[in-house]
UniProtKB/TrEMBL annotation:
It comes from the Bacteria. Residues 236-256 are annotated as: Disordered. This is Uncharacterized conserved protein, DUF1501 family. It comes from Asanoa hainanensis. It holds the Pfam family DUF1501. Residues 236-245 have a biased composition (Low complexity).
């Protein structure tokens, strides 16, 4: 899925419009977000856990990310795409990481990376839109209009800054029925040249007799200018030596919205003691139907560089040491390569959880390559077990309350005790 398709998913999801309007959520700027840091919140920050959710849009090829290098069936299914045993970064006697993930391999060795194998949901749907909707709303049975983080915002009566997205559009994940997270675009807004600041300010003035919803919609015009100014300031700040990570952002896939740039803003907020509990960032382009090797490696390199730099940076401060990162994609790819040296939409895949508070190691069971469902992997772990662990351990919430009644059978111990 390329960045345009990712944006189409976000904009086409009815949950975005409904949740954001119900909540009256505005796009706020980084300066405004940083201003929520007070002496009280900075004092409390080291005791408050935080979750960073990384969405890989397009369907990441899990079999070429966490590689079953010891299984001959892997090489038979992918004669051109399979990685030879001497190239992979071994995790144990059966599984290995892709050769372009040395940073994640280092985190694994230091027990700061957990890999949950075979994660999926019942009755897989190979549509990008439906599958991502299932992941973000945590409801595989039927479409709903709220995300699982959005329902947590509703249930805790949280302020808008409690959950923040650094994507171009608020994801359904953060939309609740009565509340919504905030959205801050890394690249700023491209306003039409015909619109002046004065004109937009006039559009944002409340008018007598209008409804609360109309007034909120009008104010959003004024928010555009404020948000654009603040985001441009943030972009300049994150490119400074003091704000940048040790590694430069990768190029070619994210542009100004690269994963490294998004995580750089998260790092600024965490270090400043901003009282945000959940951050949402993303990387698109994983719909690798043709000539997969080059494009997939480029994306994995960007993920590796951005994520390991962020985790290293977080480990250096008390605030950062309470941060955990969850990385997922809407589905994996089919086991057998297609005729275009790529892979088509599949089912289950690995989930990464990284950070100083993570109980590193391998969790769950790697799906077998000989017991397939119409050529696809059979999920061995329900995705709600992973989300439930994040809710209960990181956010201190009851999973069933926000997972539409689903109760994880056994708590997944991927996060170290506080």
């Amino acid at each position: 899925m390329d960045p345009m398709t990712r944006r189409r998913f976000l904009r086409a999801s009815g949950v975005v419009g409904a949740g954001a309007l119900a909540a009256g959520a505005a796009g706020i700027g980084i300066s405004e977000l940083l201003s929520t840091s007070t002496p009280e919140t900075r004092e409390q920050a080291p005791t408050h856990a935080k979750l960073v959710i990384v969405t890989l849009y397009g369907g990441n090829d899990g079999l070429n990310t966490v590689i079953p290098y010891a299984d001959p069936a892997y090489y038979r299914a992918r004669p051109e795409l399979a990685y030879p045993q001497e190239k992979v970064l071994r995790l144990d006697t059966a599984l290995a990481l892709n050769p372009v993930l040395p940073g994640l391999h280092r985190l694994w060795q230091s027990r700061q990376l957990a890999i949950v194998a075979g994660v999926g949901y019942p009755r897989p749907d190979r549509s990008h839109f439906r599958s991502m909707d299932i992941w973000q709303t945590a409801n595989p049975a039927r479409p709903v209009r709220t995300g699982w983080v959005g329902r947590w915002l509703d249930g805790t009566a949280a302020p808008v800054e409690a959950a923040v997205s650094f994507e171009s559009v608020l994801p359904p994940l953060l939309a609740g029925a009565t509340r919504s997270g905030a959205c801050i675009s890394v690249g700023g807004l491209a306003l039409p040249s015909s619109l002046t600041t004065t004109m937009i300010g006039a559009l944002g003035q409340p008018q007598p007799g209008e409804s609360a919803l109309q007034a909120r919609a009008a104010l959003s015009y004024a928010d555009l200018v404020k948000m654009d100014t603040m985001v441009r300031e943030a972009s300049a700040a994150t490119s400074s030596p003091s704000a940048a990570s040790d590694h430069p952002p990768a190029t070619g896939t994210g542009g100004s919205n690269s994963l490294a740039a998004q995580l750089g803003l998260v790092a600024r907020c965490v270090e400043a003691g901003v009282p945000t509990s959940v951050y949402s960032v993303s990387l698109g382009g994983f719909d690798t139907h043709a000539q997969e090797r080059v494009g997939h490696e480029m994306l994995l390199r960007e993920l590796d560089t951005a994520l390991t730099s962020f985790v290293d940076r977080m480990a250096t401060t008390a605030n950062g040491q309470r941060v955990s990162v969850l990385v997922y994609s809407e589905f994996g790819r089919r086991v057998r390569a297609n005729s275009s040296d790529g892979t088509d939409h599949g089912t289950a895949g690995p989930v990464f959880v990284a950070g100083p508070r993570v109980a590193g190691g391998l969790y769950g069971e790697q799906p077998g390559l000989r017991d397939l469902d119409d050529g696809d992997l059979k999920a061995t772990m329900d995705f709600r077990d992973v989300l439930g662990a994040a809710l209960s351990t990181v956010l201190g919430a009851e999973p069933a309350r926000y997972l539409d009644g689903y109760q994880p059978k056994t708590p997944l111990p991927i996060f170290a005790p506080v």
